[in-house]
Amino acid sequence: MTHIVFNEADVKVLESAIELDEQLNGRVICIHDDYAVGPIDNIYEPSGIEERKAWWQMVCEGGDYEQKSSDVLKDDNATLESLIKELQENDEAQIWIWAAQNKHDVSGYYWLLPFLKPFQGRVQILYLNNLPFINEKGNIFYPNWLSEIPAKEFLKAKKLARDITLSEFEVDPDEWTKLCVDNKGVRMLEGGKKLMQHEYDFYDSELKKFILPEWQKAGKIIHQFLSKAKHTTGDAFLLWRLKVMVAMGMFEAQGKNGQMKEFEIRQITKAE
What is the pTM of this model? Predict the structure, then answer.
């Protein structure tokens, strides 16, 4: 059995759950790219893959995440090639896809689905959509991310595993195709598996609220945004948006551009 997750943090907690239940025994692989942001037009073609890779390189250029841009897409495509080969060679191989109700997991699910359509009947989904779990303190909560769920709670979650139906393999890729054609830069989860798209500047208006007249490090601004904003995204994307707004002359900056701990930003002060 192969378990698929969409966040690095999910790997560790699922591996801990596997240690508690031999029925879950199998390897855990992670899809690393964040398909909730960035270009997705022709995403399964070499031109679309290269466009997305170039976009990530632009987003991460010269900053803390520069290495990320050169690894993510390469890793995902290599992972899928290996997985498909295994499924072709071993008729007993099974796939379990784990996803929580957030735009990152759902976008990753949509991206993944066309690769696995030929193996319908051997692919199961565990979509933890609005389901209650018990946290370490014994309180009921509704997780947004798999990594928030204690390992022992996964033993109950496994009962939710079900085959991805032939209908889902037909309909869900059509929904993803519509999003790919529209090709806006930000995808948001409206509920269930319904994704809506917005322009790349979707987070800017909220991000601006945390930029003060005083100099602040980019890392602090992003941390405050992630702690308080209703809709959030990855810090690499947010750092890029800060750089874009500075380049547009909306704010002042000093220090090394793109470095969380050295790049400082403030509101533009009027000359006296």
Answer: 0.90
